[in-house]
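Issue: copy button drops trailing tokens. Both records pasted manually instead:
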Amino acid sequence: GGQVASVQSSVHSTARVLVLPTRDRKDMAAARMVSILLERLGLDVHGPNSVPLAGELSKLASAAETSLACVVALPPGGIAAARLFCLRLRAQGVQAIVYAAAALEAEEVRAQLRASGADQLAESMATLVSIVASIAPGSASPSTAALPADTRRSA
């Protein structure tokens, strides 16, 4: 009896994370990689099968029953879409973490994303995973051994 209750409570305490690509196949591939890394932490990861339209975000966030989203926007481009995604997610009460790689080197881009509602910014997948692990209840601690070699380099 008690064991079942503790297993059920731990399942319900695991964070649900929505991973959203913003523009194209590159963003979709990166979003899949992010999803795999977050699943390795024991998180309940959700995401669309294709790049969503901004108008679909509230439906996706509601369906995933989440309060945490990772927005994936690889350069070139994607920052305008990421800003729009952050605005829509903020309106839903969803905390947004933006993974935009090298685009975040420009302070102007960082400021624009923060003004649009991005709660956290990550320049690498390793940083993104660390941020999510520090925020999400029920996640395992990330170890660099679980990350692909190219993400360990920038951690």
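Record 2 (pasted manually too):
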Amino acid sequence: LGYNGIIIVKHTQRPVTAGVNREAGMTKEAFLAFCGAELGTEPDYPFDEDFETAVLRHKGSRKWFAVVMKVSRRKFGIDSDEAVDIVNLKIPLEMFGFFGKEQGVYPAYHMNKLHWVSVLLSDTADSTVEFLANVSYEETKTIPRRRKNESGRNL
């Protein structure tokens, strides 16, 4: 399966023990730094009295492409009350099913599960987080409208 010239190969990652991939792990700070360096975005904190939840917006469209928040592992069916940093990312429908719990990727928490996934930062390989962040950024760009001629047909 390809996505914007990128070939996606369904793969399994290092084994996960009790919902935690001990060899993986990106911090919230590292994720925000990656998005700043690679995508030129800065976090926005749009929620009153909540300075922990960060929103990242596409530079062109200003649409959200990532939401970083702290959530209990229990929300993902893991038997733990530990609060962990997650990022919700938008992915195209054709990519659903290529990443799963073994990679630290779950149906989105608190977002539309048809278009968004939740990535547990501490459980997911950096390369997977970075790849999905780039995909989400691309998914939220503005698509140029086609110009129409006088008769209303596309040019």
